[in-house]
Amino acid sequence: MIRHRFSAEDFHRMAEAGILGEDDRVELIRGEVVELSPVGKRHMAALKRLMNALFPLQQAKKALLQVQDPLRLFPDTEPQPDLALLAYRDDFYRERVPEAKDALLVVEVAETSLDHDLQVKLPLYAQAGIPEVWVVDLVREKVHVFRKPQGEGYGEAQALEDGEVSVLGLKVPVKEVLP
Question: Which Pfam families match (predicted)?
Answer without folding.
Answer: Uma2
